[in-house]
Amino acid sequence: VQLQAFGGGLVQPGGSLRLSCTGFEFNLGDYAIGWFRQAPGKEREGVVCINYSGNSKYYKDSVKGRFAISKDNALNTVYLQMNSLTSEDTAVYYCASPGVMGCPVIAGVLIYDAMEHWGKGTQVTVSS
Question: Which residues, 6+ apart, have CB-to-CB distance to 101 below 8 Å?
């Protein structure tokens, strides 16, 4: 099972970026997929998550209204559209799956320890 994240890069504040997560020998349509990020010196945090069917989504408060997660099961890909980026969004972004249909959210937090499958991260840098 492999997940792989793509699409990171350098973007100016206020700009947009779209990340992609694809599965190899892993059908993303059967499982929830989440995005986590880790900034230098900080813990990895859950940002967004989409359930297996795409009809239930979780967003961390700080990204609501700016980030959008979606999935294309035909392409076996999950997308993270990030708009109005700020320096606070600078981090390595990882896609992950808990290996179940729903997003593991407790008390408004996407649970890191519930994720069973992780992709390598992609760096997002927001800077002028």
Answer: 30, 31, 32, 51, 52, 53
Q: How far is CA 47 from the centre of its chain?
A: 6
Structure tokens at 46: 């859950």
| Strand locations in 1-128 (E) | 2-6, 9-11, 17-24, 33-38, 45-50, 57-59, 67-72, 77-82, 91-97, 105-106, 109-110, 117-120, 122-126
pLDDT in tens, 81-111: 999 999 999 999 999 999 999 999 999 999 9
Pick left, alpha or beta for residue 56 (phi over 0 → left; psi -120 to 50 → alpha; otherwise beta).
beta
Coil, helix or strand at residue 50: strand
Q: What pLDDT, in 10s, does the model give residues 3-46?
A: 999 999 999 999 999 999 999 889 999 999 999 999 999 999 99
